[in-house]
From TrEMBL:
InterPro entries, per the entry: NAD(P)-bd_dom_sf
Organism: Streptomyces yaizuensis
Gene3D superfamilies: NAD(P)-binding Rossmann-like Domain (3.40.50.720)
Source species, domain of life: Bacteria
Protein name per the record: Saccharopine dehydrogenase
Amino acid sequence: MGQPESVLILGGTGQAGARAAALLRQWHPALPLTIAGRDIDRAQRVAGELGAATAVTIDLRRSDLGLPADRTYSAVIAALWDDHLHGLRYAQHRGLPYLSISSGLVDIAPEVVAGAQRANAAPILLAGHYCAGTVVLAALHAARRFDRIDTIRISAVLDELDTGGPAGRADLRRWSTATTAGLVRRDGVFTWVAGPDAQADVRSTDGTDLPGRSIAIPDVPSLALATDAPDVRFDFAVGESVGRRRGEPVSFEVRIDLEGTGRGGAPISRSRYLVHPAGQRPLTATGIALGVERLLGLRGEAATPGIHTPEALIDPAYAVERMAETGAAFIGAPGDS
């Protein structure tokens, strides 16, 4: 394929956007990037560090994003909350792929409807999953040895100092305001849980239990429908990470518990931690960069028009390789077979 136009990264000066841009520069040195933010000086600093990148200011309250009419792009990446959906509509009107990471399960409906109304306009990648879909991909990679999956439980710890800056904290507040209930799949039925049913301890790699709860997150339907597992749950705790308890920088950890049967029909289980010594940001950035690759056809075929989720586009084995390059690792959990 020929060289694409520049990738427009809304929120490209933020932690997730800037780090994703750095990964794209590393993986695809000639790929043009446009760092878009409200502060032009900051955008210019990020673009200057990347090389082969430009900087622009944007206004998310405007349908044209405040960009000149003659500017052309290859994709629009919303590494922030696109509250007016002007980034999405900008992409749709120009037939450009679009990726978003801040629309949680309770607020993806406008994006889904917009995509359905213009199903042939361009691909939309809804990556409002934990760490932009990398946890789902890691779980699917761990599931490869199973013939049948009966139960999936994801248990995540987010350090309160690792929420991703002002935009990330705003996302957490918005999601918690929308609902305090969690979504699980129980006996094959997607069910809302609240109160004691939603509460669960989340155990860290050092054995520390943190109070957590089931949350409404796209990872649950993504994993349930990708594996046909009848029981799926995602529990989430915010607290001090193992790294910080050791006097080190904030760290990242997610426990992935799988139960089912192996190729011969014998019951098996697998428990693994996905960990990163630098917190959630490298994995979130990796999820964004992987999505851009597939949307543009930089790896494999370009995504077709319509609504997509990370696991529908990205090979889990390849995703895990990319995660490992950033310093992520799998470690066994007690009781793993």
